[in-house]
């Protein structure tokens, strides 16, 4: 089954915590929900810091509206 794609608007305190929880618990979430949750895009003003945190696991953008439009 296809994963559920999620976009994060910000990767600071709340967005970063969300990233951590979803990443750390991915297997359990998939087991319970029957589908994986994949963070596909992250928007943040500090693109460099965001790229450092997420690596190549998600597309990093500076425009939050692009994340919303692409959802």
Structural summary, described in words:
This protein has 71 residues and is of the alpha/beta class. The chain has one domain (4-70): Rossmann fold. It is 49% helix and 23% strand. It has 4 helices and 3 strands. The chain has helices at 13-24, 26-33, 47-54, 64-70, and strands at 4-9, 37-43, 59-61. A 3-stranded parallel beta sheet has the order 1-2-3, with helices on both faces. Strand 2, helix 3 and strand 3 (59-61) form a beta-alpha-beta unit.
Key features?
globular, 23% strand, 4 helices, alpha/beta, 3 strands, three-stranded parallel sheet, Rossmann fold, 71 residues
Number of strands: 3
CATH topology: Rossmann fold
The largest β sheet comes out as:
3 strands, parallel
Radius of gyration: 12 Å
- In helices, the fraction of residues equals 40-55%
- CATH superfamily, called what? NAD(P)-binding Rossmann-like Domain
CATH class: Alpha Beta
User: Unreliable runs, pLDDT <50, ≥5 residues?
Assistant: none
Number of structural domains: 1
Give the SSE order as H and E letters: EHHEHEH
| Number of H- or I-type helical stretches | 4
User: In angstroms, what separates the terminal alpha carbons?
Assistant: 18 Å
Strand content: 15-25%
Q: What's the pLDDT, averaged over the residues?
A: 95
Alpha-beta content class:
alpha/beta
Across the major sheet, the strand order is 1-2-3
């Amino acid at each position: 089954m296809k994963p559920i794609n999620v976009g994060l608007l910000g990767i600071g305190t709340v967005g970063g915590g969300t990233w951590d929880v979803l990443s750390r618990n991915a297997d359990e979430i998939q087991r319970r929900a029957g589908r994986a949750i994949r963070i596909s895009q992250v928007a943040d003003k500090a693109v460099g810091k965001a790229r450092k945190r997420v690596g190549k696991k998600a597309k990093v953008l500076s425009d939050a509206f692009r994340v919303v439009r692409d959802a």
